[in-house]
Amino acid sequence: AVNGWKEVTPEPGVAFCRRCAGVGVKAIIATDISRDGTMKGTNMDLYRELLTIPWLEITASGGIAALDELAELQKMHCHAAILGKSIYTGAIDLAQAVRLYQGDYDQMTVYNADPAAQAREFIAAGAKYLHVVDLDGAKDDTTANMTTIAAIAKQGGLFIEVGGGIRDEARIEQYLSLGVGRCILGTIAVKDFDFTARMAQK
Fold it and tell me: Within 10 Å of residue 118's Cβ, how many Cβ atoms?
């Protein structure tokens, strides 16, 4: 699904991931949107299938609600997992995890008004990676959160990946110059696959 999960594409997700790997994409965040934000459990079958694609780093996202799911993903050699609602609601304790309404902008919940302070809390709990989605950028193609993302990157201590509204090489270069380690291509990856292939080669 693209455009804030409001438009379904005809190509199955796993097939698209295989095509991405074929042009040199090294990492994919795979979100099962039918489970994202529901805390109803991870679609393990999806990740098992994706993990058969050679040389592709898979990050699981969507529905993760318990530590045993993280343990299973780790056993499958999944690179990482994105935890959202399970962290904010307390269903998963981030420190324990380290030791071992979809697309609707009107339904957004702010859990911490200071993202840099939240990042410091994640570091204190032992996190090494931070997945940031610029919802404003995704919605209206602005860079309103660039300063916030720069402040998080400047703190150091985390490998940061950013997505949301990244539709051209200039935006990618902006983020990388701030110290972001990886940029996530979403809708543009599907709508302009040639662009995705070019960026994967850089």
Answer: 14
